[in-house]
Design a protein that fits this description.
alpha+beta; Ribosomal Protein L24e, Chain: T; two-stranded antiparallel sheet; 4 strands; about 40% strand; elongated
Length: about 70
């Protein structure tokens, strides 16, 4: 399962771990991905998507505003 958000295309980022001596070793920053059933008003049915937590909050905020 790829760690990619299907709504915003957020994916794994690469960076460095820094030790006390400031030595750099590679590491990954994984997005916070969930499988979530969301209701599509266009198709009038539930759709299962892999979305990040930020997108879940945004969708919930937009649906509450309607």
């Amino acid at each position: 399962m790829a760690k990619v958000c299907e709504l915003c295309s957020k994916r794994t980022q690469v960076g460095n771990n820094r030790s006390h001596s400031n030595r750099a070793t590679k590491r990954k920053f994984l997005p916070n991905i969930f499988k979530k059933r969301l209701f599509s008003t266009a198709m009038q049915m539930f759709v299962t998507l892999k979305v990040c937590s930020r997108c879940i909050k945004t969708v919930a905020k937009q649906s509450a505003a309607k």
